[in-house]
Structures are given as structure tokens and as C-alpha cells.
């Protein structure tokens, strides 16, 4: 049984209990993160902590940057208590506006936020990494603050389910004729040798993997442009790949059942994937 962290205590997951009045439960009023752990090391913790603190600030949940920084210590303890110092894992972190009677406006000042962190063993999919994935295209029906990693994930839930029902892994979302991102990943489209991705704005999540991928790709000599791609360009692309904490860099080999390029992971995708995995595993990934 996993040990999780809930509101200041480390408890067996089965004993972790939250109030039905928690605003995360009734309003989806909270912010989350998912971090990746390899050989006991949390990948890009500072970047995740910065994004979480910013998101909490944007929605005015009373949990500041030093409170978020302290969750780094919680992660370390969870890795120890759950025997996750070797192999791979993820940790889910969530901070809600706390428990109070269901009224839309904020609860009284001093209402403690609900803080939860839970680790899981994680095995990246070799198949997804090597052979690639199928995607579908869907309208982006989400709200216009997709830069905030809120626990309201209805758009992602419906998108991923539609993908699954179509035999695919990810839904690529279209807003105003442009590809924004995947339901739970950022997307890159290779056109004329340039890897293009939607620029940072309120319409996408500023993905940590996206950030690392852009730096790693540029270091590897790949030309990256933060420029939107139209739906037509997406469907005529040479290569497409998606990136995220639990996806790494996954080639997209079909969209709506039609092959991307020649239907196999392309050379730019492979270079970016290699460069990213070297950062994730610190150069020791060849053995994996
Ligand atoms: N999803 N875009 C969206 C909408 C996401 O939900 C995610 C992450 C990403 C990739 O961000 P990052 O590289 O920081 O993981 C992009 C997480 C993993 C999830 O909901 O499980």
C-alpha cells in the first residue's frame, strides 16, 4: 500500500480522506502538477515548482512559492517511504482552495488549502517511444486560460476518451484553425525541416517537457520555431510528435487514420527524442 501525503501527514493511501466540501471535489478549484522521477531524482523540479506557484497565484489560492518549494521535501520523503529510489516513477501533486460550504466566492481567509501528493511506479511505453502513436483531430473546446494547470480537466478527459474510442492515444486540438496542443501533451509539427510548436500564450499549457525539448532540440542542431501551424499544415506535415511528462517524445504516425509522412517516426523526431532522453536520463538511456 502506497504512502501518500495529505494535509501535513504521511499516511497509507487507504487512510487518506478528504472532505466532501473540499473545493477541489465540488468546483475543481485547484492546481496540480505531475513530475517524473528517474532513479530517485525528480526531473526538472524547479521548473514544475515555478509553474505551480504561478498557477496558484493566478487563481489566488493561498499557497506561495515557498510553500510549493517545501513540497520538494515531501516528494523526497515519498520516494523514500515508497521504495522509489530506483527505477521510474511519477508524483502527482495537488493544492485546492480547501474545504468550505459550497459557495462560489472564496472561503474565509485562513481556510487551509487542501494539499495532496501521491507517487506511483511508472514504466514508459517502449512501443509508444519506438513505433509512435495514433492521434485524432478535435475542436479545442477548453476555456481560454489553458496556461493554468487547473484540476478542471473536462476538455482533456473528453478528448482522450474520444481518442481511445477511435483506437488512438492523443487528441490534437484545433482552435481558430490552428493546432494548439494535445489533450495532455504539447505538440510539434515538422514542416520543411523546422519543428514548429504553438507559442506560449493563454491557449496552451507551458509544458515543462516542451521547454526542455526546445532547448535540447536546438542544442542538437534542430531548427525550432514557436509559431502556430494550421490544421491543413498539420495534415500535410512531414513529421508530428507530442511531448509531456508521461509521454516523453512520442512520434505521431497517423492522424485520423491517415499516415503522417511515410507513416514511420521521422528523422527530426528521432533526433529530438534522442536529445530529450539524454537530458531525462542524464546520458544513461542507451541501456533502456
Ligand atoms: N499533462 N498540455 C497539457 C494540456 C497537459 O495536460 C500536459 C501535461 C502537457 C505537458 O506538460 P508537461 O510537459 O509539463 O507534463 C501539455 C499531465 C502530465 C497530466 O495531466 O497528466
Topology, element by element:
Blueprint: E1 3-6, E2 9-12, H1 23-27, E3 30-38, E4 41-42, H2 45-58, H3 65-81, E5 88-96, E6 114-121, H4 126-131, E7 133-139, H5 154-165, E8 170-175, E9 178-182, E10 186-191, E11 194-196, H6 208-219, E12 223-225, E13 229-230, H7 231-235, E14 239-244, E15 248-255, E16 258-259, H8 267-281
Parallel strand pairs: 7-8, 7-15, 11-12
Antiparallel strand pairs: 1-2, 1-6, 3-4, 3-5, 5-6, 8-9, 9-13, 10-11, 10-14, 14-15, 15-16
Helix pairs in contact: 2-3, 6-8
The structure holds N-(5'-phosphopyridoxyl)-D-alanine.
Key terms for this structure?
288 residues, alpha+beta, D-amino Acid Aminotransferase, Chain A, domain 1, D-amino Acid Aminotransferase, Chain A, domain 2, 2 domains, six-stranded antiparallel beta sheet, 8 helices, binds N-(5'-phosphopyridoxyl)-D-alanine
Describe this structure in words.
The protein folds into 2 domains: 3-121, Aminotransferase class 4, branched-chain amino acid transferase, N-terminal domain (D-amino Acid Aminotransferase, Chain A, domain 1, 2-Layer Sandwich), CATH 3.30.470; 126-281, D-amino Acid Aminotransferase, subunit A, domain 2 (D-amino Acid Aminotransferase, Chain A, domain 2). The chain is built from 8 helices and 16 strands. The protein has helices at residues 23-27, 45-58, 65-81, 126-131, 154-165, 208-219, 231-235, 267-281; strands at 3-6, 9-12, 30-38, 41-42, 88-96, 114-121, 133-139, 170-175, 178-182, 186-191, 194-196, 223-225, 229-230, 239-244, 248-255, 258-259. Strands 7, 8, 9, 10, 11, 12, 13, 14, 15 and 16 form a 10-stranded mixed β-sheet that branches. A 6-stranded antiparallel β-sheet has the order 2-1-6-5-3-4. Strand 7, helix 5 and strand 8 form a beta-alpha-beta unit. The longest helix is centred in the N-terminal third of the chain and has 17 residues, at 65-81. The chain starts with a strand and ends in a 7-residue tail after the last helix. The protein binds N-(5'-phosphopyridoxyl)-D-alanine.
Amino acid at each position: 500500500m502506497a504512502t501518500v501525503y495529505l494535509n501535513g501527514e504521511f499516511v497509507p493511501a487507504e487512510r487518506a480522506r478528504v472532505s466532501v466540501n473540499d473545493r477541489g471535489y465540488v468546483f475543481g478549484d485547484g492546481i496540480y502538477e505531475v513530475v517524473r522521477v528517474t532513479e530517485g531524482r525528480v526531473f526538472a523540479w524547479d521548473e514544475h515548482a515555478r509553474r505551480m506557484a504561478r498557477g496558484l497565484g493566478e487563481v489566488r489560492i493561498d499557497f506561495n512559492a515557498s510553500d510549493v518549494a517545501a513540497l520538494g521535501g515531501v516528494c523526497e520523503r515519498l520516494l523514500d517511504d515508497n521504495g522509489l529510489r530506483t527505477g521510474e516513477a511519477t508524483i502527482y501533486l495537488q493544492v485546492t482552495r480547501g474545504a468550505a460550504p459550497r459557495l462560489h466566492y472564496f472561503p474565509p481567509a485562513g481556510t487551509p488549502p487542501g494539499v495532496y501528493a501521491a507517487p506511483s511506479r511508472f514504466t514508459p511505453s517502449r512501443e509508444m517511444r519506438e513505433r509512435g502513436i495514433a492521434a485524432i483531430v478535435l475542436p479545442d473546446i477548453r476555456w481560454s486560460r489553458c496556461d493554468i494547470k487547473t484540476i478542471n480537466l473536462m476538455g482533456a478527459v473528453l478528448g482522450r476518451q474520444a481518442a481511445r474510442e477511435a483506437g488512438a492515444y492523443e487528441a490534437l486540438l484545433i482552435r481558430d484553425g490552428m493546432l494548439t496542443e494535445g489533450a495532455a501533451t504539447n505538440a510539434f509539427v515538422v514542416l520543411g525541416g523546422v519543428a514548429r510548436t504553438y507559442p506560449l500564450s493563454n491557449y496552451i499549457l507551458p509544458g515543462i517537457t516542451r521547454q526542455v525539448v526546445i532547448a535540447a532540440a536546438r542544442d542538437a542542431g534542430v531548427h525550432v520555431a514557436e509559431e502556430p501551424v494550421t490544421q491543413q499544415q498539420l495534415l500535410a506535415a512531414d513529421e508530428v510528435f507530442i511531448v509531456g511528462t508521461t509521454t516523453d517524445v512520442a512520434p505521431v504516425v497517423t492522424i485520423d487514420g491517415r499516415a503522417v509522412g511515410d507513416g514511420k517516426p521521422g528523422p527530426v523526431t528521432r533526433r529530438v527524442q534522442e536529445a530529450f532522453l539524454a537530458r531525462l536520463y542524464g546520458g544513461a538511456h542507451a541501456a533502456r
